[in-house]
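Notebook, p. 212. Picked up where the previous page left off. The plan for this session was modest: take the two constructs that came back from the sequencing core last week, fold each one, and keep the raw output in the notebook itself so nobody has to go hunting through shared drives later. Recording the first one now, exactly as returned: residue sequence, then the structure token string.
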Amino acid sequence: MTTNGGFQPVFCTIVPPHVLDRLAQHEDSGLAAPARRTLERDALERTRRRLTTVIGAPATAPPEHTAGKPYRTVHDAGHQESLPGRKVRGEGDEPGQDASVNRAYAGLGATFELYRTAYGRDSIDGKGLPLDATVHFGQDYDNAFWNGEQMVFGDGDGEIFLDFTIPVDVIGHELTHGVTQYTANLAYFGQSGALNESLSDVFGSLIKQYTLGQTAADADWLIGTGLLAPRVTGKALRSMKEPGTAYDDDVLGKDPQPSTMDGYVNTGRDNGGVHINSGIPNRAFYLVATALGGNAWERAGQIWYDVLTGGGLEAEATFADFARLTAAAARTRYTEDGEEQEAVLKAWEQVGVPAS
């Protein structure tokens, strides 16, 4: 099921723990309580994911699969915390009145389409895996996650976070954790964990750009635009173009992401800072994509996809390992000493990671 190290899915959320930790400590219980409930629920889901990895998930018969076509199912948890919830839309069904259901359905399709059209990949696992999602999860739940089997979206608390189905790149980000799960299977700690997060940001952004028909020059390179409530001083959860500038808010604090290795954060929190240090490889991809121009999912995205799926990326890869592999992939797919390889080498140099 994977090319590297066995099947080890992880529990991945779009909002980093350090953001929720800060919010949970706020003196206003109206802001703190939803964050605390979210952290508690995330901890439970993380434990369940670990147990499922050990004992295995119940076997289910896959639906009949038409190659190259998505098979989407959206459920409604009804603000409860039982998964998957009540089925409300299946593949081919017409849109209903629930905007969250419609956005989730469309986001699953947008993710499937980018991987199929740009890279010839048939769903998350490359074998037509059904794409399942649950909306309206929990009460004021401040997150969205991929649990190794499906997508789950909270409605947000309305004060800090809005509905998590709003940004299509959030959907693409979380589903890309599934792609990584079935390919490189990167360990979710330290630099390999930050690469895991960065790859989800990269392809989440590419899914948004593909959906909107944006070139690398047109794109905002923000992750989670539209997710922050109006009271928050910020643009998004992360900026790939300028890591560390996505928000600067009296409640959430300042975006802590570094853009180069000079700012690399050594910490034991958040699995070794996986959501923080991902700003470094994010910035590298942005530099490659904008240097090459055109549609970022083409040459730049192809290089990153080749590394993710090529079998040479070790589960505990460092930034330098990944940088060297992207340089090699650029040389192999395109030409030695061509503009693609030059752009890759220069980008990694700018963020302080050796690539040769």
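Okay, moving on. Second construct, recorded in the same format:
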Amino acid sequence: MRVKVACVGGGPAGLYLSILLKRQDPSHDITVHERDPEGSTYGWGVTYWRGLLDKLHLHDPESACAIQEASVTWNQGEARVRDLVTRRPSDEGFGIGRHRLLEILAARARSLDVRLEFEHEITHDNLPAADLVVAADGVRSALRTRHADHFGAETTEGRNHYIWLGTSKVFDSFTFAFVETDHGWIWCYGYAFSPERSTVVVECAPRTWTGLGLDSADEADGLALLEKLFADILDGHPLIGRSTGSGSAQWLHFRTLTNRTWHRDNLVLLGDAAHTTHYSIGAGTTLALEDAIALADALHAHSELHELPRALARYERQRTSELLAIQSAARYSAQWYENLPRYIDLPPEQMFALLGQRHSPLLPHVPPQLYYRIDKAAGQLEALRRFKRWLGPKVARGVHARELASRK
């Protein structure tokens, strides 16, 4: 049955949903409304892993091939602490420029006769008439905010400061660098997303941020200081503040967003409008695209217009269930960095191993060196692996329950 869909927000989630719906039924009338000019997206590279690529090939091989071809890959991780360097094999990772990803998805959507309307801001007051309205307008979604009481959005703000930068240094592995200063530790994650560019995310505790003067420095002075601090990994390459547009890169606190429900009548939340997960697990774009896949599948399973409530309820149930483990991992990952002094003075191989285990709900409750020995032994003994898999979620559920109780 032909359905009219208005997708508000031209990010990866909205564009990919439009592609999937058109593939299901070319007669669908789909418009993507984006408030910014085409090609003006802010952001550097995004990461994803083989699991997502396999899903993309399954649901739309044409865009999947284009995305894979435009991506760079790595299969190692490197950690630098003071003058020590540790390098280990890792799962195959992929990086692609956000601007390039959006170009690919926009071109594919147009080829399927999706209408893309840029510089067209949609609010509740000028909401287009449609059978389904998709709020894919980001963490500060105007459509969600209009019905804030219904959706029950909650945000929690991380303690650390971070800034999203680029560089002409092309990293050959996913690189972590931890630098000790007179005011505490500052660190970055760097990964390539094209043959010419890499992303660099810099993070530090509030005391370090103010102690280094980053709270009052203008962009040029701030970048110069960061280039000096991370000179060992940049090899003389500059840090770049913004990828496109005017203005300067901003230091931020990460805001984790959750919603009590994801739909209201014919309005449904997608991507960052529905949820966010801390950038340190590199899953934001993956989760947005997986939202689009789940919503398209739910709409296909309940294809009659009168079944729309069932489709949206199915989508919400599926994604909120699938996100539980990922949101837990992101929460513990963020806390690992907020408690960096607990781990930073371990021997390099132990510190790097626990960096890879930072999403574990057990780690904050076990002395780091003991956890390292248990984890190493678990890699050799199946009984210990089973015990760890059982105990981790049990601890996570207990901690989460206490957190919920403390909010009441």
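Notes on construct two before I forget. The chain has a mean pLDDT of 91.
Flagging for discussion at group meeting.
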